[in-house]
Amino acid sequence: MKDTQHKRRGRPPSGEPLKRIQLMVFERQDAEASQEADRRGVSISQVYREWIDAGRKGKRK
Question: What are the structural domain ranges in the chain?
Answer without folding.
Answer: 27-59
